[in-house]
Amino acid sequence: MTHAASKGTMSRMAALLDTRRYLTDFDSRRISHVLTDVLVIGSGVAGARAAIEAAQYGDVILMCKQAFEESATRYAQGGIAAAIDEVTDVQTHFDDTMRVGAMLNDPQAVQLLVGEGPARIRELIEWGLAFDRTGATGSSRATPGGGAGSNRAMSGDDRLARTREGGHSVHRIVHAGGDQTGLELVRTLHRRVHESARIRVFENCFLIDLLTIEGECHRAAPGLNRLCRGAVTFHPQHGHQLIWAAQTVLASGGCGQLWRETTNPSGATGDGFAAAFRAGAVLKDMELMQFHPTTLYVAGAGRALISEAVRGEGAYLVDKAGERFMLKYHPDGELAPRDIVSRVIHEHLTETRSNSVFLDVRHLKGFAKRFPYIAELCADFKIDVTTDLIPVRPSAHYMIGGVAVELDGSSSVPGLLACGEVSCTGVHGANRMA
């Protein structure tokens, strides 16, 4: 084949791969139509929070691929990073995030994240999220509800309990239920959703495609002039539906199920990325997938997350010989950034011809109280955390790339916003901080 012919073939292949079209054919006259002001796709922290905000301005449909409670958010264990000591820590939080992201982050996005973080924590407390607190007697659970308790949330004897995770230079991770922060966050946001008369929740509603019409779309992919006006969906009871919306918010999460070993729930199959691509949206940094260093390794079983907060509380990573090895590779040892720890573990497994390394928590007093879910999970596999090592290895965790958006969430397709894991703001750079 000549060079010209080869170049022509490659060009045709590239054009084919960049074809944007609907996934299925449908006749709009034969399926039901639903109208709303705002359609939010996804029920995790991003989707639920977007729906709560949008309900201040119009009617909202929040559609979920599975049950409302099922999302990656509910499985998050460690906590939420925020510069609670605002005067001293906002700049440090910014610096840590940029450093861990290999300085490839968008500085404006990072500044927005760290600057607004404390206010969002106060908001969650006012909404009743029971963050763990530390008083004179040690760590304790907070009392749900706002009021006077929320006014002293960040000062006094009843302070928010905080831990440290990989890449952070200080203890700034607030948590709830010990290691059940995601579940408490879901409960809090979903309670707010149910309290709103303007939000309808469509469960078990599957996104097939984003609904687009021809229009003046100068920011879309070359050759495309599309406006997003909702979604083509499928429900097992109601069949295909067209949900029309003046504004669509894509918050469908990640795609961890593309990997054999992942921390993600079964619904994380990347539908949102694909639908956005077909609708003409620009995607960015799709090669960047973060692997979490420590997921429980039991042959024949699925992978379950072992929170980075376990290492933040002092757990060691050891190999099959019982030797700590992280300090040989990074001065922060077990609390180096996730990409570094995952890479070191992978290389160490290859060198030692092992299936896993181990978390040693035997020296941590009160482990089961601090991490009740993890202790119970290990017990289910006959691992006694007081006497046994916990076998772990890296697994796919968080998609860093996604639908390219501006700081206001707008994508390259007018009418389509994106937030959460499906979006790419540039805040993470090349590696997401814990």
Rg, Å, rounded: 23 Å
Major pleated sheet: 7 strands, mixed
Shape: globular
End-to-end span in angstroms? 50 Å
Helix content: 25-40%
Mean pLDDT: 89
How much of the sequence lies in strands comes to 15-25%
The assigned structural class equals: alpha+beta
Enumerate how many helices there are, as a single number.
Answer: 11
What are the segments in which pLDDT stays under 50 over at least 5 consecutive residues? 136-153
Topology, number of strands:
21
Can you give a write-up of this model?
- This protein is of the alpha+beta class.
- It contains eleven helices and 21 strands.
- The chain has helices at residues 3-17, 45-54, 86-100, 107-126, 148-151, 181-195, 271-278, 309-312, 338-352, 367-370, 372-380, and strands spanning 32-41, 60-63, 80-81, 132-135, 138-141, 159-160, 162-163, 173-174, 199-202, 206-214, 226-235, 239-250, 283-284, 289-296, 304-305, 316-318, 357-360, 390-399, 402-404, 416-418, 423-424.
- The strands form five sheets. Strands 1, 2, 9, 10, 11, 12 and 20 form a seven-stranded mixed beta sheet that branches. It has a five-stranded antiparallel beta sheet with strand order 15-14-18-17-16. The protein has a three-stranded antiparallel beta sheet with strand order 3-8-7, with no helix packed on it.
- Strand 14 and strand 15 (304-305) form a beta hairpin.
- Helix 2 packs parallel to helix 6 (181-195) and helix 3 (86-100) packs across helix 4.
- The termini are far apart.
